[in-house]
Amino acid sequence: MAWLTAATALLTTLGSAPAGAAGEWQKVGGDVLSGVSGLAYEGRTDDGTGVQVLVVHDNKRSGQQRLSRITHREGSDTVAPLTWDGPEPVDLEAIEAVPGMPGEYLALTSRGVLFRLKVAGSTATVVDYTPLPAIGEGDDFESFALVAQNGKLAALWADRGAGPGRPATLYAAPLTFAAWGQPLFGAVTSRTYRAAHPADDGARHISDIAVTAAGRLVVGSAADAGDDGPFDSAVSDAGRVTISATGRVRVALAASPTVLGTYPQYKVEAVECLPESADTLLGTDDENLGGFVRTESFCGA
Q1: How many C-beta atoms surround the C-beta of residue 23 within 10 A?
Q2: How far is it, in rounded angstroms, from Cα 55 to Cα 107?
Q3: How far is CA 69 from the centre of its chain?
Q4: One digit per residue, pLDDT tens: the chain, 301 residues?
Q5: Can you say how many angstroms the Cα of residue 191 is from the centroid of all Cα atoms in its chain?
Q6: CA angle, residues 115, 183, 217, in degrees to nearest 5
Q7: C-alpha dihedral over 282, 285, 290, 291, to 10 degrees?
Q8: Is the peptide bond before 174 cis (omega within 30 degrees of 0)?
Protein backbone atom coordinates (compact mmCIF):
# COMPACT_ATOMS: atom_id res chain seq x y z
CA MET A 1 0.00 0.00 0.00
CA ALA A 2 1.36 3.36 -1.01
CA TRP A 3 1.69 5.97 1.71
CA LEU A 4 3.06 9.45 1.97
CA THR A 5 6.84 9.17 1.93
CA ALA A 6 8.67 11.49 4.27
CA ALA A 7 5.55 12.32 6.28
CA THR A 8 5.07 8.77 7.45
CA ALA A 9 8.55 8.72 8.97
CA LEU A 10 8.43 12.02 10.78
CA LEU A 11 6.58 13.53 13.70
CA THR A 12 5.18 16.96 12.93
CA THR A 13 4.80 19.41 15.77
CA LEU A 14 2.36 22.20 15.08
CA GLY A 15 1.31 24.81 17.62
CA SER A 16 -0.51 28.11 17.46
CA ALA A 17 -1.08 28.84 21.17
CA PRO A 18 1.50 29.89 23.76
CA ALA A 19 2.51 27.26 26.31
CA GLY A 20 -0.04 26.85 29.06
CA ALA A 21 -2.80 28.70 27.21
CA ALA A 22 -5.92 26.62 27.94
CA GLY A 23 -8.90 26.72 25.65
CA GLU A 24 -7.18 28.10 22.56
CA TRP A 25 -7.19 26.52 19.10
CA GLN A 26 -3.95 24.69 18.26
CA LYS A 27 -3.10 23.79 14.69
CA VAL A 28 -2.67 20.08 13.82
CA GLY A 29 -2.96 20.16 10.03
CA GLY A 30 -2.15 22.63 7.29
CA ASP A 31 -4.24 21.56 4.30
CA VAL A 32 -7.36 19.79 3.06
CA LEU A 33 -5.79 16.35 3.61
CA SER A 34 -5.02 16.84 7.30
CA GLY A 35 -8.23 18.10 8.92
CA VAL A 36 -9.80 16.44 11.95
CA SER A 37 -12.97 14.55 11.03
CA GLY A 38 -13.18 12.47 14.21
CA LEU A 39 -11.33 11.86 17.48
CA ALA A 40 -10.99 8.88 19.83
CA TYR A 41 -9.25 8.96 23.20
CA GLU A 42 -6.33 6.53 23.37
CA GLY A 43 -4.66 7.30 26.71
CA ARG A 44 -2.69 9.78 28.78
CA THR A 45 0.97 10.51 28.17
CA ASP A 46 3.50 8.83 30.48
CA ASP A 47 4.22 12.10 32.24
CA GLY A 48 0.53 12.86 32.73
CA THR A 49 0.71 16.27 31.07
CA GLY A 50 -1.14 15.38 27.88
CA VAL A 51 -3.37 12.91 26.10
CA GLN A 52 -3.03 10.77 23.00
CA VAL A 53 -5.97 10.57 20.61
CA LEU A 54 -6.56 8.94 17.26
CA VAL A 55 -7.82 11.18 14.46
CA VAL A 56 -9.49 10.13 11.20
CA HIS A 57 -9.12 12.12 7.99
CA ASP A 58 -11.89 12.22 5.38
CA ASN A 59 -9.57 11.46 2.46
CA LYS A 60 -10.89 9.50 -0.50
CA ARG A 61 -8.03 8.54 -2.83
CA SER A 62 -5.90 5.43 -2.45
CA GLY A 63 -2.68 6.02 -0.51
CA GLN A 64 -3.87 9.19 1.23
CA GLN A 65 -3.63 9.27 5.02
CA ARG A 66 -6.64 7.79 6.84
CA LEU A 67 -5.53 7.79 10.46
CA SER A 68 -3.07 9.69 12.67
CA ARG A 69 -2.20 9.98 16.35
CA ILE A 70 -2.17 13.35 18.09
CA THR A 71 -0.31 13.88 21.36
CA HIS A 72 -2.11 16.90 22.75
CA ARG A 73 -0.85 19.26 25.43
CA GLU A 74 -1.96 22.81 26.05
CA GLY A 75 0.42 24.82 23.91
CA SER A 76 1.62 22.11 21.53
CA ASP A 77 0.46 19.09 19.55
CA THR A 78 2.53 16.33 17.98
CA VAL A 79 1.03 14.52 14.98
CA ALA A 80 2.19 11.09 13.79
CA PRO A 81 0.66 9.23 10.81
CA LEU A 82 -0.46 5.62 11.31
CA THR A 83 -0.26 2.87 8.70
CA TRP A 84 -3.65 1.53 7.60
CA ASP A 85 -3.48 -2.25 7.11
CA GLY A 86 -6.49 -3.56 5.21
CA PRO A 87 -9.21 -2.39 2.80
CA GLU A 88 -9.08 1.40 2.46
CA PRO A 89 -12.20 3.32 3.52
CA VAL A 90 -13.52 6.27 1.56
CA ASP A 91 -14.31 9.42 3.55
CA LEU A 92 -13.87 8.47 7.21
CA GLU A 93 -15.84 10.84 9.42
CA ALA A 94 -15.83 9.41 12.96
CA ILE A 95 -13.91 7.05 15.25
CA GLU A 96 -14.67 5.65 18.70
CA ALA A 97 -12.83 3.43 21.18
CA VAL A 98 -14.65 0.19 22.04
CA PRO A 99 -15.28 0.10 25.82
CA GLY A 100 -13.57 -2.78 27.58
CA MET A 101 -11.49 -3.72 24.52
CA PRO A 102 -8.10 -1.94 24.73
CA GLY A 103 -6.67 -1.00 21.35
CA GLU A 104 -9.96 -1.63 19.50
CA TYR A 105 -11.87 1.07 17.64
CA LEU A 106 -14.82 1.53 15.31
CA ALA A 107 -14.46 4.05 12.47
CA LEU A 108 -17.34 5.21 10.26
CA THR A 109 -17.46 6.53 6.70
CA SER A 110 -19.90 9.15 5.45
CA ARG A 111 -21.88 6.51 3.54
CA GLY A 112 -22.33 4.30 6.58
CA VAL A 113 -19.58 1.64 6.36
CA LEU A 114 -18.25 0.74 9.82
CA PHE A 115 -14.65 -0.50 10.18
CA ARG A 116 -13.49 -2.41 13.26
CA LEU A 117 -9.80 -1.69 13.90
CA LYS A 118 -7.04 -3.06 16.12
CA VAL A 119 -4.38 -0.42 16.78
CA ALA A 120 -0.92 -1.48 17.91
CA GLY A 121 1.96 0.97 17.82
CA SER A 122 1.91 2.82 14.49
CA THR A 123 -0.36 0.36 12.65
CA ALA A 124 -4.16 0.09 12.48
CA THR A 125 -5.33 -3.31 11.23
CA VAL A 126 -8.83 -3.83 9.83
CA VAL A 127 -10.51 -6.69 11.72
CA ASP A 128 -13.87 -6.46 9.94
CA TYR A 129 -16.17 -4.00 8.21
CA THR A 130 -19.92 -3.85 7.70
CA PRO A 131 -22.67 -1.37 6.71
CA LEU A 132 -24.76 0.25 9.40
CA PRO A 133 -28.15 -1.42 9.90
CA ALA A 134 -30.24 1.70 9.21
CA ILE A 135 -29.33 4.03 6.35
CA GLY A 136 -32.02 6.41 5.17
CA GLU A 137 -32.30 7.95 1.73
CA GLY A 138 -29.68 10.69 1.37
CA ASP A 139 -28.09 10.00 4.76
CA ASP A 140 -24.63 11.51 5.20
CA PHE A 141 -22.90 10.48 8.42
CA GLU A 142 -20.32 12.49 10.36
CA SER A 143 -20.82 11.09 13.86
CA PHE A 144 -20.57 7.87 15.83
CA ALA A 145 -20.53 7.16 19.57
CA LEU A 146 -20.54 4.12 21.86
CA VAL A 147 -22.24 3.93 25.26
CA ALA A 148 -21.62 1.33 27.97
CA GLN A 149 -24.14 1.04 30.82
CA ASN A 150 -25.38 -1.84 32.98
CA GLY A 151 -22.97 -4.22 31.32
CA LYS A 152 -24.49 -3.49 27.90
CA LEU A 153 -23.21 -1.62 24.85
CA ALA A 154 -25.06 0.63 22.42
CA ALA A 155 -24.12 2.62 19.32
CA LEU A 156 -25.30 6.07 18.25
CA TRP A 157 -24.88 7.61 14.80
CA ALA A 158 -26.56 10.41 12.88
CA ASP A 159 -27.29 11.71 9.43
CA ARG A 160 -25.90 15.23 9.72
CA GLY A 161 -28.94 16.99 8.22
CA ALA A 162 -28.85 20.09 6.03
CA GLY A 163 -30.28 23.45 7.00
CA PRO A 164 -33.84 24.23 8.08
CA GLY A 165 -35.41 21.77 5.64
CA ARG A 166 -33.57 18.62 6.78
CA PRO A 167 -32.99 18.02 10.50
CA ALA A 168 -30.45 15.46 11.61
CA THR A 169 -31.66 11.90 12.22
CA LEU A 170 -30.08 10.32 15.29
CA TYR A 171 -30.06 6.52 15.28
CA ALA A 172 -29.45 4.21 18.27
CA ALA A 173 -29.15 0.44 18.64
CA PRO A 174 -27.76 -2.22 21.00
CA LEU A 175 -24.36 -3.51 19.87
CA THR A 176 -22.53 -6.81 20.27
CA PHE A 177 -19.74 -8.51 18.32
CA ALA A 178 -19.61 -11.83 16.51
CA ALA A 179 -16.80 -14.24 17.40
CA TRP A 180 -14.99 -13.29 14.16
CA GLY A 181 -15.19 -9.57 14.96
CA GLN A 182 -18.19 -8.27 13.01
CA PRO A 183 -20.33 -5.63 14.79
CA LEU A 184 -23.90 -6.90 15.32
CA PHE A 185 -26.76 -4.46 15.90
CA GLY A 186 -30.07 -4.92 17.66
CA ALA A 187 -33.32 -3.06 17.01
CA VAL A 188 -32.72 0.46 15.68
CA THR A 189 -34.63 3.51 16.90
CA SER A 190 -34.38 7.04 15.52
CA ARG A 191 -35.10 10.64 16.52
CA THR A 192 -34.87 13.94 14.64
CA TYR A 193 -32.71 16.76 15.96
CA ARG A 194 -32.40 20.46 15.06
CA ALA A 195 -29.41 22.45 16.24
CA ALA A 196 -29.96 25.76 17.99
CA HIS A 197 -26.81 27.10 16.29
CA PRO A 198 -25.74 27.52 13.55
CA ALA A 199 -28.99 28.01 11.65
CA ASP A 200 -27.72 28.72 8.11
CA ASP A 201 -29.08 26.98 5.02
CA GLY A 202 -25.93 24.84 4.97
CA ALA A 203 -25.97 23.94 8.66
CA ARG A 204 -25.15 20.36 9.66
CA HIS A 205 -27.25 19.77 12.74
CA ILE A 206 -25.02 16.94 14.04
CA SER A 207 -21.34 16.92 13.06
CA ASP A 208 -20.31 14.66 15.96
CA ILE A 209 -21.63 13.03 19.14
CA ALA A 210 -20.00 12.43 22.51
CA VAL A 211 -21.58 10.80 25.55
CA THR A 212 -20.56 11.65 29.12
CA ALA A 213 -20.17 9.08 31.88
CA ALA A 214 -23.63 10.09 33.11
CA GLY A 215 -25.20 9.60 29.67
CA ARG A 216 -25.49 13.24 28.56
CA LEU A 217 -25.34 13.79 24.80
CA VAL A 218 -22.82 16.47 23.83
CA VAL A 219 -23.31 17.30 20.15
CA GLY A 220 -21.32 19.33 17.65
CA SER A 221 -23.01 21.27 14.84
CA ALA A 222 -21.36 23.10 11.95
CA ALA A 223 -21.92 25.25 8.88
CA ASP A 224 -19.72 25.01 5.78
CA ALA A 225 -19.94 27.53 2.93
CA GLY A 226 -17.16 25.91 0.89
CA ASP A 227 -13.56 24.73 1.06
CA ASP A 228 -12.37 28.20 2.05
CA GLY A 229 -15.22 28.93 4.45
CA PRO A 230 -16.59 30.86 6.10
CA PHE A 231 -17.32 28.25 8.77
CA ASP A 232 -19.34 28.36 11.97
CA SER A 233 -19.87 25.83 14.76
CA ALA A 234 -21.41 25.16 18.13
CA VAL A 235 -21.39 22.47 20.80
CA SER A 236 -24.64 21.81 22.63
CA ASP A 237 -26.17 19.75 25.43
CA ALA A 238 -28.62 17.73 23.34
CA GLY A 239 -30.25 15.28 25.74
CA ARG A 240 -29.52 11.93 27.37
CA VAL A 241 -29.11 8.24 26.52
CA THR A 242 -29.74 5.28 28.83
CA ILE A 243 -29.38 1.52 28.48
CA SER A 244 -31.50 -0.74 30.67
CA ALA A 245 -30.30 -3.93 32.35
CA THR A 246 -31.97 -5.86 29.53
CA GLY A 247 -30.11 -3.83 26.87
CA ARG A 248 -32.94 -1.55 25.77
CA VAL A 249 -31.62 1.79 24.48
CA ARG A 250 -33.56 4.98 25.16
CA VAL A 251 -32.64 8.39 23.72
CA ALA A 252 -34.33 11.52 25.08
CA LEU A 253 -33.46 14.62 23.04
CA ALA A 254 -33.84 18.11 24.48
CA ALA A 255 -36.71 20.14 23.04
CA SER A 256 -34.44 23.19 23.23
CA PRO A 257 -30.75 22.20 23.16
CA THR A 258 -28.48 24.26 25.43
CA VAL A 259 -25.61 25.83 23.49
CA LEU A 260 -22.40 25.31 25.47
CA GLY A 261 -20.04 27.15 23.12
CA THR A 262 -19.93 28.75 19.66
CA TYR A 263 -16.93 28.87 17.31
CA PRO A 264 -17.10 31.37 14.44
CA GLN A 265 -14.65 30.65 11.59
CA TYR A 266 -14.13 27.01 12.64
CA LYS A 267 -15.91 23.83 11.51
CA VAL A 268 -16.12 21.49 14.49
CA GLU A 269 -16.38 17.88 13.28
CA ALA A 270 -15.02 16.07 16.36
CA VAL A 271 -16.19 16.13 19.98
CA GLU A 272 -14.54 13.74 22.46
CA CYS A 273 -15.15 13.43 26.21
CA LEU A 274 -11.95 12.55 28.09
CA PRO A 275 -12.39 9.90 30.81
CA GLU A 276 -12.81 10.75 34.48
CA SER A 277 -13.02 14.49 33.92
CA ALA A 278 -15.16 17.23 32.42
CA ASP A 279 -12.50 17.81 29.78
CA THR A 280 -13.69 17.83 26.18
CA LEU A 281 -11.43 17.78 23.14
CA LEU A 282 -12.77 19.48 20.02
CA GLY A 283 -11.36 19.06 16.52
CA THR A 284 -12.02 20.91 13.28
CA ASP A 285 -11.87 20.04 9.60
CA ASP A 286 -11.47 23.47 8.05
CA GLU A 287 -10.87 22.09 4.54
CA ASN A 288 -8.16 24.14 2.79
CA LEU A 289 -7.30 25.83 6.09
CA GLY A 290 -6.37 22.54 7.77
CA GLY A 291 -7.35 21.30 11.22
CA PHE A 292 -7.29 22.56 14.80
CA VAL A 293 -7.94 21.17 18.28
CA ARG A 294 -8.77 22.76 21.63
CA THR A 295 -9.94 21.71 25.08
CA GLU A 296 -13.18 22.73 26.79
CA SER A 297 -15.06 21.53 29.88
CA PHE A 298 -18.40 20.33 28.52
CA CYS A 299 -18.41 16.71 29.71
CA GLY A 300 -19.15 17.08 33.41
CA ALA A 301 -22.14 15.42 35.10
Answers
A1: 12
A2: 10
A3: 13
A4: 333 333 333 333 333 332 223 469 999 999 999 999 999 999 999 998 999 999 999 999 999 999 999 999 988 899 999 999 999 999 999 999 999 999 999 999 999 999 999 999 999 999 999 999 989 999 999 999 999 999 999 999 999 999 999 999 999 999 999 999 899 999 999 999 999 999 988 899 999 999 999 999 999 999 999 899 999 999 999 999 999 999 999 999 999 999 999 999 999 999 999 999 999 999 999 999 999 999 999 998 7
A5: 20
A6: 85
A7: 10
A8: no
- CA 201-203-204 angle, to 5 degrees, is 140
How far does Cα 223 stand from its chain's mean position? 16
pTM above 0.85, yes or no: yes
Please give the full DSSP string across the chain, using - where no structure is assigned. ----HHHHH--EEE--S-TT-TT--EEEE-STTS--SEEEEEEE-TTSS-EEEEEE----STTS--EEEEEEETTEEEEEE-EEESSPPSSEEEEEEPTTSTTEEEEEETTSEEEEEEEETTEEEEEEEEE-S---TT--EEEEEEEEETTEEEEEEEE--BTTTB-EEEEEEEEEE-TTS-EEE---EEEEE--SS--STTEEEEEEEEE-TT-EEEEEEEEE-STT--EEEEEEEEEEEEE-TT--EEEEEEEEEEEEEE-TT--EEEEEEPTTSS-EEEEE--GGG-EEEEEE-----
Closest CA to 234 of 216, 257, 256, 201: 257
Residue 257: asked if its preceding bond is cis (omega within 30°), the reply is no
- CB within 8 A of 80, min separation 6: which ones? 11, 12, 68, 69, 71, 122
